[in-house]
Amino acid sequence: MENNLANIAPYAKPAVKLLQGLIFEDQTDIWTEIIQYRLELTKYFEKIAIELIIDERDGYAYLKQVLLDDLGTTIGLIRRMPLSYELTLVCVLLREWLQEFEANDVETVNLYITAKEFRDRLELFFKEKTNELKFIRELNSHLEACEKMGLLKLVDKGSADPDEHRYEVKRILKARITVEELTRFKKLLEDEFKSV
User: What's the whole-model pTM score?
Assistant: First the structure.
């Protein structure tokens, strides 16, 4: 048994945790190991066509599949899950809000929002269209989905009213939706609402 244990790489635990999903710097023990074994982890994942992304400034790490050709082929280890239109819209609006926050608020480190604040922002965006009112009512479930994906972190449940729950908007959104993608999505949305 000792021989088998000797063959286990010292970075095995952070490698497995990365394969399970996003890692944030507040996950102190595993974050420390990812930083410590950065080079070894990078080399290990390169061998299986996966890129290790570490953003120390914003405090997150994740794995990204390397494209094997111009058709977007990957080895298929990390499952891609397409987002619904509604969830894409929530992510785009959160990303835009984060961009505004970083441009305007130099004193506060993190962006915190409540479901009510997000709903107020959406209502201005939609301007009372019937289908969108249904979407606004279902916002809490979309925010919970964003939390499961690691894009939001529930930091204060404070009240029984889900509208008052406070979320931290995680900066991983910047990696998931780049400025170029944000601009493209916003243009598509603007075009869609002009045609309605």
Answer: 0.74
